[in-house]
């Protein structure tokens, strides 16, 4: 759900029905479609595709779980270099034992195609079309998370961040409106808040973030981060007694940023599932088992987690005002505001002590 240049820009929505999506799969990727289903998406078009046969010379064996047809929004489609970088990163991670989707070549041997849509006699818009392997399992949002699962997710994220240190980060040196470091940009959209309490809390969080995070952002430990480690992008599988994370999807918001922000974004969305600040202890403990963030950075967790909540909630309302037919955009509103109010009113020292109390404990993972 990324938009370039650190600001909200207008995108041209794509209208694509199931028949047209199926035709794209068959024409561009040479696959015979059995079934195609739309999936939730913020500003792209995603479909789960089941196929029966291939005439694509690059697909010698069908992926038994099916594929994801992904049509990027008009803004992200303008950055072909970053699309290629995502494909390379996903391939790299799979080769280094971090499970994620794999890009699939089209019939011309390329990992992406361009769909041109006419807007009139002299104007048109381009959309990037990709095919990715569908990752089997359950979305985190569809299971009841345990403390052990939260620890496991934190551990998975840290391992992924460590592996990505070995990947060339040059094409990921970018900012988008969803980069947590660009939180002050949210001020331009605060007019969507009609509730005085929500507006007051949002302003407090943004001002605190400016004073305590932006002022020292240059000293934070950095590398490539996923940037949207949420319950819709985390795939889990059943074990004998619980669930464990098995895959991460959607690298559309990946960029070079602070590892503190990766942890904060993950905590924001995971804590919304349980509404329990105590669960942050397990996430921090799992992440810290492999990624040791300095104490001074961990003290910024509260404002960073709350900052992501403000960012997600305000942008959600803003984008919904532009596209009211997409109710998925509002999926976090009720739980998000409830959690934000709870965390922001909690004493900062007490919250820091709680969240860091599991670090270095001798716990099985």
TrEMBL record:
GO terms for cellular component: cytoplasm. The keyword Phosphoprotein does not apply. It is found in: Cytoplasm. Gene3D superfamilies: 3.90.1200.10, Phosphorylase Kinase, domain 1. GO terms for molecular function: hydroxylysine kinase activity. Keywords: Cytoplasm, Kinase, Transferase. Its EC number is 2.7.1.81. InterPro entries: Aminoglycoside_PTrfase, Kinase-like_dom_sf, Pseudomonas-type_ThrB. It catalyses: (5R)-5-hydroxy-L-lysine + GTP = (5R)-5-phosphooxy-L-lysine + GDP + H(+). Catalyzes the GTP-dependent phosphorylation of 5-hydroxy-L-lysine. This is Hydroxylysine kinase. It comes from Laodelphax striatellus (Small brown planthopper).
């Amino acid at each position: 759900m990324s938009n370039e240049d650190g600001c909200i820009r207008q995108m041209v929505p794509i209208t694509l029905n199931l028949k047209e999506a199926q035709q794209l799969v068959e024409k561009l990727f040479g696959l015979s479609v059995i079934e195609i289903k739309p999936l939730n998406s913020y500003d792209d078009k995603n479909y789960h595709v089941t196929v029966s046969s291939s005439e694509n010379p690059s697909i010698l064996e069908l992926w038994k779980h099916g594929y994801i047809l992904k049509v990027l929004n008009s803004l992200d489609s303008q950055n072909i270099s970053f699309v290629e970088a995502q494909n390379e990163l996903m391939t790299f991670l799979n080769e280094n034992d971090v499970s994620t989707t794999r890009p699939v070549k089209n019939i011309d041997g390329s990992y992406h195609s361009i769909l041109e849509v006419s807007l009139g006699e002299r104007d048109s818009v381009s959309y990037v079309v990709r095919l990715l392997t569908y990752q089997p399992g359950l979305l985190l949002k569809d299971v009841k998370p345990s403390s052990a699962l939260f620890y496991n997710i934190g551990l998975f994220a840290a391992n992924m961040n460590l592996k990505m240190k070995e990947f060339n980060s040059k094409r990921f040196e970018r900012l988008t409106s969803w980069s947590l470091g660009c939180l002050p940009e949210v001020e331009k959209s605060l007019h969507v808040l009609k509730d005085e309490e929500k507006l007051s809390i949002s302003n407090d969080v943004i001002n605190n973030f400016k004073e305590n995070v932006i002022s020292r952002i240059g000293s934070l430990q950095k590398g490539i981060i996923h940037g949207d480690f949420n319950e819709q992008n985390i795939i889990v599988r059943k074990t004998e007694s619980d669930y464990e994370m098995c895959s991460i999807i959607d690298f559309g918001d990946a960029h070079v940023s602070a590892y503190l922000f990766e942890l904060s974004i993950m905590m924001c969305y995971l804590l919304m599932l349980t509404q329990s600040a105590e669960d942050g202890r397990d996430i921090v403990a799992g992440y810290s088992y492999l990624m040791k963030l300095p104490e001074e950075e961990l003290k910024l967790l509260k404002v960073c987690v709350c900052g992501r909540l403000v960012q997600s909630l305000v942008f959600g309302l803003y984008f919904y005002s532009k596209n009211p037919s997409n109710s998925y955009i509002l999926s976090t509103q009720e739980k998000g505001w409830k959690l934000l109010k709870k965390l922001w009113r909690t004493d900062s020292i007490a919250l820091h002590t709680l969240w860091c109390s599991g670090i270095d404990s001798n716990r099985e993972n």
